[in-house]
Amino acid sequence: MGKGKGKNKPNDDRPSKSKHRGANGHHIRQNNKHMEIKQYGHSKSKQLFPVKLAMWDFDHCDPKRCSGKKLERLGLITSLKVGQRFQGIVISPNGKSVVCPNDRSIVEKYGASVVECSWARLDEIPFNKIGGKHERLLPYLVAANQVNYGRPWRLNCVEAIAACFAIIGRMDWASDLLSHFSWGLGFLELNNELLQIYQNCTDSESVKKAEEEWLLKLKEENQKRKQEVQNTDIWMMGNVNRKMNSLNISDEEEEEDDRFESISKPVKYDNLGNIIEERECEVEEEEEKEREEEWEIKYDSLGNIVTS
Ligand SMILES: C[S@@+](CC[C@H](N)C(=O)[O-])C[C@H]1O[C@@H](n2cnc3c(N)ncnc32)[C@H](O)[C@@H]1O
Description:
Bound molecules: S-adenosylmethionine
Structural class: alpha/beta
Strand order of the largest sheet: 2-1-5-3-6-4
């Protein structure tokens, strides 16, 4: 496990008691935390958000960049121990169905929770000892945080909770929570259209269907762009019968071509935002090459077309 001091860190990794503690017996950092809460004019015992927010913190992340830790410093979220269950919605990579508007009553009554850990270390999380009855994945949404900006599915903790609130139709809670982060409200702007679509769904299946339709639309737009880029390439190349390597292309222009290539390649993600190798795409390229070879016109020494 990494450095830090979350509730779910093994004991031998914890710093020794004595010198890092302040006058009230709390850690110096905890004292800072109390100061931060005091700035807001609240005490820790009082719930500062309209519903309960909780997290299992595995201390994998840099505390300065960790949105869960910031929510904790603000007194908005409480930490849970391994072995503790949560009654509300548990937004988790271990979920089987997605958050949906029908979850609203559960969230309003029991709140929402997340698993504060590193995306790269999910295999270290004892998912059988945390969670609850209502574990959920989030449908396709794009991160706006500074670490994973533009990346689908990989939201940080505050984005994940805000996304859950937005989907169940509590945009007020979503923006309240995100307003504590400089980039926060950008998350709602970036995903505005899609969030509205999810809000108009009912159960998990209908959200899943809306997600699939959205992804299909993205794929089609991508293919259209790819086609446009190919057409532009042909237009810019002039005589398409001339072989590429006989053209006098400068390094700069070649770089330009590479960029078009990467833009035009469709990228597919799995549920956790990992890029899936596009087999389909490779097969398409192979077929395209074969077709090109098939269509290449060959001439004999007298200029007659040779059919192969
Ligand atoms: C892996 S942690 C990373 C936290 C990050 N270090 C931060 O600063 O907040 C993000 C957590 O948000 C929730 N989450 C984010 N995106 C999710 C998704 N697409 N499906 C399910 N849970 C998600 C999960 O609880 C996940 O463990």
